[in-house]
Amino acid sequence: MKYAWAVLGLGLWAAGAAVSGAWGQTPPPVVELKQNYPNPFNPATTIPFVLSGDLFANGHRPRVTLKIYNVLAQLVAVPILQGTGESLDNLELTCNSPSGCAYSAYWDGNIPRTGEQAASGVYIYQLVVDGRRFTKKMIIMK
Questions:
Q1: Which ranges constitute the DSSP H helices of 2-142?
Q2: Rounded to an integer, what distance in angstroms lies between the CA atom of residue 4 and that of residue 13?
Q3: Contact, 104 vs 46, CB < 8 A?
Q4: Which of 32, 47, 75, 122 is the most buried (most CB within 10 A)?
């Protein structure tokens, strides 16, 4: 039961954002968090995600965070954005396409605070775009 409360406390149960509201309201812009690959992986993985062009309307730069947690909802790592090497921690992204842009994050499988490789098991990755959360699971197999 401790596990369930830890995961619920971070809001990690949600598989994506649900669209709700009155008829006639515009749904929120599309954010698509894709499955990491390879999965299972060892030692590194790529996490793709897509942001629709609507997120960048009127010069808006969405704030994006991607974090990896263990099953106890403890922060394990923050991946980097491929192409820039920047940590995906409250990063403002840009996109030059009106239809949106695809991005890829990279995690080398290391735990930064210890410098060790993460243990085999299930991990949860959570993408937060302008406060909206999207989650998926991945597996490290050694």
A1: 2-9
A2: 9
A3: yes
A4: 47
Question: How many whole angstroms separate alpha carbon 140 and alpha carbon 142?
Answer: 7
What's the rounded Cα separation, in Å, for the pair 120 and 124? 13
Whether pTM exceeds 0.85: no
Identify the structural domains of the chain with CATH numbers, from first to last. Answer: 2-14+29-111+121-140 (2.60.40)
Give the whole-angstrom CA distance, residue 65 versus residue 131.
9
pLDDT tens digits, one per residue of 79-94: 999 999 999 999 999 9
What is the distance between the alpha carbons of residues 69 and 76, in angstroms, rounded to a whole number? 5
Length of the chain: 142
Measured distance CA(122)–CA(19) in Å, rounded: 28
